[in-house]
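Record type: ASSEMBLY
Status: queued
Input:
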Amino acid sequence: AQTVTQSQPEMSVQEAETVTLSCTYDTSESDYYLFWYKQPPSRQMILVIRQEAYKQQNATENRFSVNFQKAAKSFSLKISDSQLGDAAMYFCAYSPFGNEKLTFGTGTRLTIIP
Amino acid sequence: DSGVTQTPKHLITATGQRVTLRCSPRSGDLSVYWYQQSLDQGLQFLIHYYNGEERAKGNILERFSAQQFPDLHSELNLSSLELGDSALYFCASSGPFGGGLGDTQYFGPGTRLTVL
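Status: finished
Output:
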């Protein structure tokens, strides 16, 4: 069974600084997808970024980028120029190719310090 | 706004009761997923429907059932409710592919269920 591990329950960063959230996963599949979702206090689940495992290039979305290390089964999220609106719970999620069920990590609560 | 709608937003009921949660997917999406988020279990996949047919089941209790209707909206039925069923229930949609082409799942705002 696939598992997703987020070893940092809480992180904090000064506004305008850069922070990296860690995620590792375990799978025997070669084709799969990885996601980061953000859950602010409103509890809405918002997609931040997505990575296809067959792509070597790391995904980027504005201030958000990932460091995808397939061999190490690592998928970290880097947030640059942190803003107060980035404060949220961040979930790493895995989906194998051929089965779109998402397996989530336990989340990292990110606090932005003004 | 993801385009996925869920009703009701909040539901308070008593143990032993039955409730129905409703989800309307984004326009054009054929897949609907249900997830449960609780403090002790985290985010758990319950069930996936594609174009009216059940495609995958996760950690869904026998007291729970779901269906997807011809207009593609879905309902999650929870019966014989227990205190431990209190959670946030999310619906997500993707599509139009149901064959695992990595469609991104977009989540609704959730239904918060409180069982007293």
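Annotation: The radius of gyration of chain B is 13 Å.
Annotation: The mean pLDDT of chain B is 92.
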